[in-house]
C-alpha cells in the first residue's frame, strides 16, 4: 500500500478532478485534509453532546 502523500498542495487540488493523486493511507489517514471530501465530511463529523463525545473517545 502506498503511503498518504502529505507533500501535496491540498488547498489547491480538487481530488474529484484529479483522483489519481489521492492515496489511501492507513485507516484512511489524510481524508480530512483533501477537498472535496474535507468540506463534505467535516460538517457532519460531530457529536450531539460533550458527554456522547467523551463516551465515544473512551472506547
TrEMBL record:
InterPro entries: DUF4385. This is DUF4385 domain-containing protein. It comes from uncultured Microcoleus sp.
Amino acid at each position: 500500500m502506498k503511503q498518504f502523500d502529505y507533500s501535496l498542495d491540498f488547498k489547491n487540488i480538487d481530488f474529484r478532478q484529479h483522483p489519481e493523486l489521492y492515496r489511501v493511507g492507513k485507516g484512511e489517514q489524510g481524508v480530512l485534509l483533501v477537498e472535496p471530501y474535507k468540506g463534505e465530511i467535516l460538517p457532519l463529523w460531530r457529536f450531539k453532546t460533550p458527554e456522547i463525545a467523551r463516551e465515544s473517545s473512551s472506547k
